[in-house]
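Worked example 4.2. Below are the chains of a multi-component assembly; read each line carefully before continuing.
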Amino acid sequence: MSRVRVLVGTRKGAFVLTADGTRERWDVSDPHFGGWEIYHLKGSPVNPDRLYASQSTSWFGQLIQRSDDGGRTWEAVGNKFAYDDPVGTHLWYDGTPHPWEFKRVWHLEPSLTDADTVYAGVEDAALFRSTDGGREWVELPRLRRHESGGAWAPGAGGMGLHTILFDPTDARRIFIAISSAGVFRTDDGGVSWRPVNRGLKSEMMPDPTAEVGHCVHRIAMHPSRPQVLFMQKHWDVMRSDDAGESWREISGNLPSDFGFPIEVHAHEPDTVYVVPITSDSLHYPPEGKLRVYRSRTGGTEWEPLTNGLPQRDCYVNVLRDAMAVDRLDRCGVYFGTTGGQVYASTDGGDHWAPVVRDLPAVLSLEVQTLTT
Amino acid sequence: MVRVELPYHLQTLARVGREVEIDVVGSVTQRSIIDALESRYPMLRGTIRDYATGRRRPYLRFLACAQDVSHDPPDRQVPDSVAKGLEPFVVLGSLSGG
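Applying the procedure described above to all two chains together yields the following structure tokens:
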């Protein structure tokens, strides 16, 4: 019997939503870490009951929580994220050099092969790794020391490393994405990194096709085809067929190519989901209609998915880490909104229904497909 | 023995009540109190003082005998009544306004 566990991070705590394989009836947990911002929580693919959570507030800073029982109980583990010396500088808003300062963990990515190994993408942008279940964190400093690092600059939302993708066929290859520097790839386990942004075009940049400086919002990969990447950029939806060496635009007939999340169907590597948002000035859906768009052709041709989603007076946003799929035969698709709704589809997006409507603003959402 | 009063979120994090009692070795200062507190409750490390700077987090305040001592040097002795456990050393989360 299969079960689904949805891990929801919100502005005011974490929630664990559970259902059996039918996904018809949901149990919503009480808040974990009530009152704290939970930027992200995610389970280990090796041991699904091992969860990691990023917990923070402006008052008390950053904590990392770990669960070994699927989220029933938690233990605060290591929260010291010290940049490797010398710390160095990046560009500040006024164009002057500014020392790297740790602010928070945006994203946690547990290893594909070891439950005690987990990576953290942080603001100011850097990549950390723990190999002891989150107790100690060590930076992979060569990313930040890339020759372009001193020129990275934060956008209005900060300078966060928000996406970490492992190549399941090559343990040495990792993709990361930073707002607003772009995508970087290592082929040697983090010893060296290089930007892989050719083909991106960002009109707000002095050089729209520069190698570094693009505001990438999210990248996604299907595990069966790790050389194919999909990207939701600040503007533009993009695709790479060569592990990031080159990108081409696949925005096609989308009503807006601005947005945050992008996700791939669990069983159809060319079926992709995005949630168009009006613009970078208007962070809500076009025309007040909440629509997921699906492409079954790997991009360019998109269809709106509206059945069960509000089609009037809807002005929520869906953030970059707030969409995920399950791995059941009938692929489930889930997303959370800044209005506190979590929507689920059990048929690949054809029909939607709210799992819960009134959570705090949803910052992140991850799905675990469990077998019992 | 020094009494330390904690804000709600640090109480839940450390799984303690509003007030804890800790032994402070040597001179009783802000620094030695927080050092002893973190030693007794390791999950509080980094939540009161920033790891990188070692300074009090900006949205927290330290009170002693109804006085805001947040800006006192961290190695200045706290009032006798706090050092003797007659009054608590208060860690306060500042109000967010609104």
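Take a moment to check your reading of the output against the notes. Chain B has a mean pLDDT of 95. Chain B has one domain: 2-93.
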